[in-house]
Amino acid sequence: MAAPVLILEETDSTNAEARRRAEAGEAGPLWIAARRQTAGRGRRGRAWDSRDGNLATTLLLTLNRTPAEAAQLTFAAALAVADLLDRYVPPALVSIKWPNDVLLDGRKSSGILIESGPAPSGGLWLAVGVGVNLSHAPEGTERPTTCIAEHLHHDVAAAPSMEEGARALAETFDAWLERWTRLGFQPVLDAWVARTPGLFGPCTARLSHETLSGIADGVEADGALRLKLPDGSLRVISAGDVFFGEAA
Ligand SMILES: O=C(O)CCCC[C@@H]1SC[C@@H]2NC(=O)N[C@@H]21
């Protein structure tokens, strides 16, 4: 069954709220959604703009897994967001970009930030933070963004409210969490690959200290991206900003 959803009027960041609760001994599972975040966090230290009407939510849960195993849930989260989008927009417009950006008509429409730490009573706490542009797309971002409201399926009247989106995501994520728990990572990775174009083509990866261009060569068993460089060597990339169809 999907974890309960707590709706806050305002918080700094739902991930920060999940972390505070986890460090105080709360185990979850609990989704913490907020109408407004005053200090929303993105990947690689970036800020995440989430104004009223968009979804900002974090699942707090505790697992008896290693951090590497827990990191597999980033792929489950991307699939859950894609399933959420499928409910409102034509599914052909929805795709995933490695590792967990869910695109709508090729533009960023959501973001996922997973954080973890040791739980006070044992195990690992995990904060699966998800932002989805439901009603508006932030402007002034480095890459083009869009939102559900701009691409509604012809038989859908309106983009979901934040509350509806939060509950729908709790359901779609629960289905992937259940599959992962019961069947392991492989079926999750297979489903993720099926929704992720560009895994075998020109690719540029912007890492913390270098930018690499080459040809993507699929993913490793843990989901890390394989990138073949022009000199024939192979780099395995676990984190970074990746742009497909853009080899130098
Ligand atoms: O940079 C990204 O693409 C990841 C963005 C993640 C944003 C979500 S919004 C809910 C949760 N709380 C945060 O502060 N960040 C995540």
UniProtKB/TrEMBL annotation:
It is an enzyme of class 6 (ligase). The keyword ATP-binding applies. The keyword Phosphoprotein does not apply. Gene3D superfamilies: 2.30.30.100, Bira Bifunctional Protein, Domain 2. Pfam families: BPL_C, BPL_LplA_LipB. It catalyses: biotin + L-lysyl-[protein] + ATP = N(6)-biotinyl-L-lysyl-[protein] + AMP + diphosphate + H(+). One of its GO terms (molecular function) is biotin--[biotin carboxyl-carrier protein] ligase activity. PROSITE patterns: BPL_LPL_CATALYTIC. InterPro entries: aa-tRNA-synth_II/BPL/LPL, Biotin_CoA_COase_ligase, BPL_C, BPL_LPL_catalytic, Transcriptional_repressor_C. Its EC number is 6.3.4.15. Keywords: ATP-binding, Biotin, Ligase, Nucleotide-binding. Residues 1-181 form the BPL/LPL catalytic domain. It comes from the Bacteria. One of its GO terms (cellular component) is cytoplasm. This is biotin--[biotin carboxyl-carrier protein] ligase. The lineage of its organism: Bacteria, Pseudomonadati, Pseudomonadota, Alphaproteobacteria, Caulobacterales.
